[in-house]
Design goal:
Layout: H1 3-16, H2 20-25, E1 27-34, E2 40-42, H3 44-57, E3 58-69, E4 75-86, E5 100-112, E6 115-123, H4 125-131
């Protein structure tokens, strides 16, 4: 396993374990976060706020993680399934009633100086809305 693959796996293990500070520790201070069908956010403070919002509305875990790394070790992609529960209504989305969902997702990541510098996440929002009954 390469150093980059280990870093990406550690990031998702922290996510899966609910260790938000562990996730943040693996990010560059100026991390770029491209939110699925949302804005680009920059910096750990913005990422921390995003995680807080997500934790209020969702309980999620990851399974079937696959990590792919380019030859330079600077770029990586991850593919996984998000198993979740919709806990509190997220503004602009269907009402939360504890619905469960299973959603394929992917992410592109950039690594610099042994930290994750960019996280770009994609999933099928219409499929998620269908699963939660929207």
């Amino acid at each position: 396993m390469t150093e980059t693959e280990g870093l990406i796996r550690a990031y998702y293990a922290a996510f899966d374990g609910g260790d938000r500070e562990g996730m943040l520790a693996l990010l560059a201070d100026d991390v770029i976060h491209d939110v699925n069908q949302g804005p680009r956010e920059t910096g750990k403070a913005a990422f921390r706020a995003f995680l807080g919002k997500m934790d209020r509305a969702y309980r999620e875990s990851i399974r079937d993680l696959v990590v792919m790394v380019d030859a330079t070790g600077r770029r990586a992609a991850a593919e996984f399934i998000v198993e979740g529960e919709y806990l509190a209504t997220d503004p602009g989305l269907p009402e939360a009633k504890g619905q469960r969902y299973s959603l394929p997702a992917g992410a592109f990541l950039e690594v610099s100086e042994r930290r994750i510098r960019r996280v770009t996440t994609y999933y099928n929002l219409p499929d998620w809305i269908r699963q939660v009954g929207g």
